[in-house]
From TrEMBL:
CR-type ZnF: 133-211
Residues reported to bind Zn(2+) 1: 146, 149, 199, 202
Listed name of the protein: Chaperone protein DnaJ
One GO BP annotation of this record: DNA replication
Domain notes from UniProt: The J domain is necessary and sufficient to stimulate DnaK ATPase activity. Zinc center 1 plays an important role in the autonomous, DnaK-independent chaperone activity of DnaJ. Zinc center 2 is essential for interaction with DnaK and for DnaJ activity.
Pfam families for the chain: DnaJ (PF00226), DnaJ_C (PF01556), DnaJ_CXXCXGXG (PF00684)
Positions of the J domain: 5-70
Length: 378
């Protein structure tokens, strides 16, 4: 049986943020939870479907694969090979996720120290850096694991004790109406351990704040909006828990000559009146240096010339785009009297019967204007 679209399962739009997804998930999970629908196989299947959709759409990496490849991107049974859902849903975990915010805790509760927070760094690049790739050093203010206590938060290993309140489970049980739920232990805050004598450097946190320097390799072809994930380079987790990730968000500055659209580059090339009329070769800029462009005779302003392979190499497909040169015929300025007279003579040579030959657009335009006004007066 084919799977339903995850956004359809949760009843949210494709562009929904995490808050909207979580809200929809809680509502549906509460509706279909097995504890409230005992013996209802259909509700149990819907509950599993809701849980699966939620876990994919709240994981940034899995959601990106799903948006690009559909179910095949996240389900190994459909050929994606990226991980997915093989067995049944863990009702204990989902119960804690759904009802934890409502009752201050859940059956799953908080199991041990929390993973470190993800961080974001906004990196501005020149067009040349984005097209060719570059390595950059960045400084990140963050929490790092304390090397003195190895992230434990204790002065020594003997100073880490089992919590006497929850006996190491990190959870305590409480009843609210017909629900029997578990909460993180208020004594050890869900860790299951307490620190008798804290580490002198991190004061029991297992981490401390400092600025670390990282070398980030930006691949060739990135563009504004692209994001590079550095696994484990986010904030250190609590008392030895895993680090979060660092996401480098790319922004490419405007260029004084080129505009980028996907893998293609665009630029305007001014040419002289003479070159436009007679044709010839002109030099145009590319990111690799100057190249010759052959201009055909009688070229008009706005004509586009394509220079194949002079664009940007795609960071994903490896295909190389083109450079599109838009010709702009430049009107001469600061003319001398002699130059003005020569232009008058040239213009006079275009008049009369020769006008249709040398200025077809102008003649066609003015003939159209004349017909328009003749029609109005008739």
């Amino acid at each position: 049986m084919s799977k339903r679209d995850y956004y359809e399962v949760l009843g949210v739009a494709k562009g929904a943020d995490e808050r909207e997804i979580k809200k929809a998930y809680k509502r549906l999970a509460m509706k279909y939870h097995p504890d409230r629908n005992q013996g209802d196989a259909d509700a149990e299947e819907k509950f599993k479907e809701v849980k699966e959709a939620y876990e994919i759409l709240t994981d940034a990496e899995k959601r990106a694969r799903y948006d690009q490849f559909g179910h095949a991107g996240v389900d190994p049974n459909m050929g994606g090979g990226h991980g997915g859902f093989g067995g049944g849903a863990d009702f204990g975990d989902i119960f804690g996720d759904v009802f934890g915010d409502i009752f201050g805790g859940g059956r799953g509760g908080r199991r041990g120290p929390a993973r470190g927070a993800d961080l974001r760094y906004n990196m501005e690049l020149t067009l040349e850096e984005a097209v060719r790739g570059v390595s950059k050093e960045i400084k990140i203010p963050t929490h790092v694991h304390c090397e003195q206590c190895n992230g434990s938060g204790a002065k020594s290993s003997a100073d880490v004790k089992t919590c006497p309140t929850c006996h190491g489970s990190g959870q305590v049980q409480m009843r609210q109406g017909f629900f029997a739920v578990q909460q993180p232990c208020p004594h050890c805050h869900g860790r299951g351990k307490i620190i008798a004598i804290p580490c002198g450097k991190c004061h029991g946190e297992g981490r401390y704040q400092r600025t670390k320097t990282l070398s980030v390799k930006i691949p060739a072809g990135v563009d504004t909006g692209d994001r590079i994930r550095l696994s484990g380079e986010g904030e250190a987790g609590e008392t030895g828990a895993p680090n979060g990730d660092l996401y480098v968000q790319v922004h490419v500055r405007e260029h004084e000559i080129f505009e980028r659209d996907g893998n293609n580059l665009y630029c305007e090339v001014p040419i002289s009146f003479t070159a436009a009329a007679l044709g010839g070769e002109i030099e145009v800029p590319t990111l690799d240096g100057r190249v010759k462009l052959k201009v055909t005779p009688e070229t008009q302003t706005g004509k586009m010339y394509r220079m194949r392979g002079k664009g940007v190499k795609s960071v994903r497909s490896g295909q190389v785009g083109d450079l599109m040169c838009k010709v702009v015929v430049e009107t001469p300025v600061n003319l001398t009297e002699e130059q003005k007279e020569l232009l008058r003579q040239l213009d006079n040579s275009f008049s009369g019967a020769a006008a249709k030959t040398h200025k077809p657009k102008s003649e066609g335009f003015f003939e159209g204007v004349k017909r328009f006004f003749d029609d109005l007066t008739n």
